[in-house]
Amino acid sequence: MNMDSSFAMSRRSVLLAGAGIALTTATAPWAAGTAAVREIRIAAAPGQAPLVGGSRPQTDVLGYDGKVPGPTLRLRQGEPVRIIVENKLDQDTTVHWHGIRLPNAMDGVPGLTQPPIKPGESFTYEFTPPDAGTFWYHPHANSLQQLGRGLAGALIIEAPEPFAVDREILWMIGDWRLKPDAQIAGGFGNSMEAAMSGRVGNTVTINGALPADELVHAGERIRLRLINSALARIMALRFEGHRPLIVAIDGQPCDPHEPEGDRVLLGPAMRIDVVLDMSGEPGRRYRVIDDFYDDLAYTLVHLAYDDKTMARASPLETAGNLPRNPLPQPDLAAAERHELALRGGMMSGAMMGGGGMMSGGMMGGMGGAAWSINGTSMTGDGHADMLPLLTLKLGRSYVLTLRNETAWWHPMHLHGHSFLVVGRNGTSSPRREWSDTVLVPPKESVDIAFVADNPGDWMLHCHVTDHQMAGLMTVLRIA
Ligand code: C2O
Ligand code: CU
Ligand code: CU
Question: Which of 64, 115, 352, 448 could serve as a FRET partner for 1 with CA atoms 20 to 30 Å apart?
């Protein structure tokens, strides 16, 4: 694809169309506007990527434009885009624009919202991103293999006004299970893994490569966009010697705050934007450690200071708030409430690795599926005839309690909406934060609230891909 020329083109058309076309506030955010449409082309294709680098062999991957990660798509809030996706794979695919509130037909779920894109064919996605922030795109077909072999890219929606930082850095953090020859190991969809942590890999990359030092200058302020594009690995990042300030979660601005326990918790598919003031000493290196899994802490990357100190006219003030996105506020008092019980999986809390064997068998007789939501198991990536678990009334507010009765963590994701996390374990949350993927700890519950304002059939599933494939998925209809 050629982003620069298409961008130039759309700028030119915007100029030709004349400046100053006001956005009508009366239309829904995903309704088509009148501005010129920017066009982008990407292809899902096999390729090779230097995941481990050095003299080691390249890894055979599947990637957008053959790359891992795929091209970072930078779109503008409120500006329509047309993305033509060509399938150069030898299997069906689709693209899901994770976290974007868009029309149902553009959501990329095969069978449910569109027919799959056959090999050699293409599909045109058209939408107008209503929210600025950090999002990502990935297939929703044969997800374990397609996402697990590299198909994913960052999707950055720019706000009209830039946020005041010196520099922006993007870390798309991936996790791979590589063999000694640097090729991706087979064995996707192993049923024991599917009933436990999912396919956690052995090699963590940043932007498709083994992390090299991240070079920084003393005194600068960085906006760091974090995206967890792993199939299953949960991350908890500690920034040695630094105090990251979380300014957005899943693309949605929040009240800036330091992470709980000084760890930035990032389940699969989650995004966190932090402001990092580089307060370290010139010439020193500071570790960024991921210590989510007990006994398996590792250094993800170093923040490496050069000898310069950034000159500044006046000292930095505390980072300000990002401008909020136009999200509909749920009416909690009038909201209709439902509970979704997440069940299944192996009983033991044994983590990956360490040879830990589970102590119990599967729960319930679910015939092949390892997980269920309110007793039903939808498996796979999306297909026709997925009957909705609930039908929600268009325009009404809902509170859903996601009750995790299992021994495992589940990053639960709802398509087509952002929701407010309003409570945990029955008590209301001090901070009400928007997100589209919420990490529900074992044996805990999370209450999410949203206005069902986007009509269609929307998936709700765990983003540990193995869990989704093995039944931790359902459909909500909004009509
Ligand atoms: Cu990120 Cu159903 O997906
Ligand atoms: Cu999604
Ligand atoms: Cu899960």
Answer: 115
CB neighbour burial string for 16-45, b if at least 16 within 10 angstroms, e if fewer:
eeeeeeeeeeeeebbeebebbebbbbbbbb
State the DSSP code for 333: T
Tell me which residue has its CA closest to atom 1 in ligand 1: 98
Q: Which of 301, 304, 306 is nearest to 288 (CA)?
A: 301
Q: Which ligand 1 atom minimizes the distance to the CA of 459?
A: 2
Can you tell me the distance from the alpha carbon of 152 to that of 149, in angstroms, rounded to the nearest whole number? 9
Mean pLDDT of the chain: 89
Q: Ligand 1 mean position to 256 CA, how many Å?
A: 26
CA separation for the pair 464, 467 (Å, rounded): 5
Entry pTM: 0.90
Q: What is the pLDDT of residues 149-205, one digit of tens each?
A: 999 999 999 999 889 899 999 999 999 999 999 999 999 999 999 999 999 999 999
Ligand 1 lining (C-beta closer than 6 Å) = 96, 98, 138, 140, 269, 413, 415, 459, 461, 463
Q: Closest-lying ligand to the alpha carbon of 101?
A: 2
Instruction: Report residue 187 as tokens.
Output: 């064995």
Task: Record the tokens describing residue 268, joined without a space.
Answer: 């699969």
Taking CA 136 as the corner, what is the angle to CA 227 and CA 60, rounded to the nearest 5 degrees? 85
Q: Measured between alpha carbons, how far is 326 from 392 in angstroms, rounded to an integer?
A: 21
- Tens of pLDDT, residue by residue over 304-324, are 999 988 887 777 788 889 999
